[in-house]
Each structure stands twice: as structure tokens, then as C-alpha cells.
């Protein structure tokens, strides 16, 4: 299966769930395969080398489906850049939709807290990754990004800390949306906000994430 076929299959699956279809059906929404589920190349290599979400949890008992989406930053419906922090990310927010099955449970039919934290970490990583992908695509087409947008070409980010607040038990099986949003950049520090919500926008968990940057040559 190639990238396009996989994305089509995931889109078809989530369009069969009415509230997910409403999220994906907005005219300025762009779907993507989460970084941890990107396919291996012919040599068996994956861009992120992820094993937990791409292999271990990728089964019918754990997380059989997930898809990412963000709002087109070049759409007329996007937020006004003048109201955003400087420097900023081109794509301010992205969401991952997960189908969670009982294989991710910890206590009493609810998703394990460590797994919920991992979902939020994945959403933050996907936000940074998709920003870099869009930057690469725009530059390949000869378009320069706005001057107030952070250049991700020569820097890499890693998770430094996560302050997680569990708000309600997350019973499975259940489909949830995990949304990571850019907050601010101060020096080498990037602050992100994350929420885990259900179909009625019930919040199960929130997180204040801190990511640190290093020049690419040091990684």
C-alpha cells in the first residue's frame, strides 16, 4: 500500500463516523498520515523510526486507525498572522484522531494514563513535523515563508517536559481527538498546549508541553 492509498483508506474510515466526518469535511482542512504511522520505504526505513505507534500499538486490539488534520495556513479562513506571537509556526495547530480499543487500557476499562500522555506527545511531534513538511514543499515550489515564521530547516526539537492533567476517565473503545496548539517560542524553548477530547468535546486530559531545540548538526 502506498501513501495515497493509506490516506484514502483512513479518510474513508473516519468519514463513516459522523462527528469525525464533520471535522474532516471543512473546506480548509488538510488530512495527513501521523508521523508515527508513515510507511516504511523499500529498504524498511521509516522517517521517524517509530516502533511504538507504527508497530506495537498498530493492531485491532490497541489503535487500529489514526489520522491527522490541520487547517490550510494559506486559506482565507486562517487566523490573522498579526495576532500571533513572533516567531511563530506557520501551522498553529493540528489534530490527531485515534481509535482507542481495550488493548490500551490500564485500570477498570479506561485508557492507561501513560498511553494518554504518549498520544499528546505524538500530537506535539506531528505539529512540528507537518510544519517542516509544508515549509519544505513551499520552498521546493519557489515560495518563501513569511519572515515571522520559524525556519525549521536547520533546527530539531525534542520533548523536554510535559505537565499532564487527567480530567476524566477515558473509557474504551472510543474515538478521541488530540489537538496540539502552538503557544510561544522563547529562545530555544517552544511551549505547546494539548487537549484530548471526545465526540461531544468532553475533555479527558490536558497538557502543557515544553520542547527544546538543537541545531541539526548536534543531533
Plain-language structure description:
- The structure is a single chain.
- This protein is α+β, with helices and mostly antiparallel strands.
- It has one domain: Hotdog Thioesterase (Thiol Ester Dehydrase, Chain A, Roll).
- A 7-stranded antiparallel β-sheet has the order 1-2-3-5-6-7-4, sandwiched between helices.
- It is built from 4 helices and 7 strands; from the N terminus they run ααβαββαββββ.
Keywords:
219 residues; alpha+beta; Thiol Ester Dehydrase, Chain A; 7-stranded antiparallel beta sheet; 7 strands; globular; Thioesterase domain-containing protein; Thioestr_dom
Quick rundown:
It comes from Coniochaeta ligniaria NRRL 30616. The chain has 219 residues and is α+β, with helices and mostly antiparallel strands.
Q: Would you spell out the secondary-structure blueprint of this structure?
A:
Blueprint: H1 3-15, H2 18-24, E1 29-32, H3 52-56, E2 66-71, E3 93-100, H4 113-140, E4 155-166, E5 174-186, E6 189-197, E7 203-215
Antiparallel strand pairs: 1-2, 2-3, 3-5, 4-7, 5-6, 6-7
